[in-house]
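so my prof wants the structure for this chain in the tokens format not the other one, which i didnt know existed until like an hour ago. anyway here's the sequence
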Amino acid sequence: MFEKFFKLSEHGTTVKTEILAGLTTFLTMGYILIVNPIILSKTGMPFGSIITATALSSAIATLVMALYANMPFGLAPGMGLNAFFAFTVVLGMGYSWEFALTAVFLEGIIFMILTFFNVRTAIVNSIPINLKYAISAGIGLFIAFIGLQGAGLVVDNPAVLVGLGDVLTAKPLICVFGLLVVGVLHYKRVKGALMIGILASTVLALILGVTEYNGIFAAPASLAPIFFKFDFTNVFTLDMATVLFTFLFVDMFDTVGTLVGVASKANMLDSEGKLPGVKKALFADSLGTTVGAILGTCTVTTYVESAAGVEEGGRTGLTALTIAALFLLSLFISPLIIMVPGAATAPVLIAVGVFMLTPILKVDFDDFTEGLPAFLAMIIMPLTYSISEGIAFGIISYTVLKLFTGKGKEVSLVTYIVALIFIGKFFL
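here's what i got, hopefully its the right format
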């Protein structure tokens, strides 16, 4: 049944590989089940209800990705977007969380319309092939940076922005241990090296007291306090337009960057550098955002941690189906999922960062009009903590360099339009 529906042989994979890949991706992105409620509850939304909304919206969106798009990507409420929701829109601008949910709902509907008319597909296809390779590498650096932070190896340093943490404390030691396990097992081509690394690190974290066992089962909280709680009274205001544009912009290019970057690493791009079936993947993202708003959470987007599952061999929707099933299961075993600390998933994120760098070998650095934009896209992502900002610098520098070196005809009209949108965004 799985072979026929997901075309496993055609994609060079097996049921066992896909399920393992899905489990690995889920564990690397499972932190959202606790982090998203922590952030959104600052607005006054009930903590338990947000956990339920997070798990359900992630499961539904990822299920669509599995059964409709047949791609190995996990989706969940987006980090950064949830912070904008809570700290800017609600706590900063003074609007209610119902107003913010309304903006997310409208964003999802607009995205579905843009996807239907192939606008988002055109944007994905407009990114030059060398930039697509660079985006993959940039995402690798970005998620490795997230891992280093989660392990306490990279910490805040007011003098120079970042610095080295205390490597002899528990979290860094757990990360180093996990990275050693992953490195040795991966070198020996042991299947499930990333998963084993997470489990081994979690055991060490329990021993060192970094995390604790709080049981396995817990009943999900009711959605009633946040379900379908919209406020349409301020829809036609400048503030709504500003909030809506920010949600649209960040989600648009974060999703595009993730799909392109991870697909590039998985060799899913065709000979022209396009991602077959990308429209279906974008629809899953759009529907997830709309449903997520109805359930009571912020924008649902494709997760860069999907790269962990791709590295484990995930190539089809069966990987995503596994992720969706685990999100549904997490409604009842949240204590067990939450037990896995950031220090235990950090080694996997760092290792995946290494794996994601390989497409950069395909970039033509001899042509500076290709090499410089690729480098900027790659380096800006981790330094600004934003995939969309990396794409912005890459696209803008690419179009400007091509234009002023007499190669303007190599740039498509859509790429020029996207560059102008990025430039306009900096003035808002």
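also thought this was worth mentioning. The chain has a mean pLDDT of 93.
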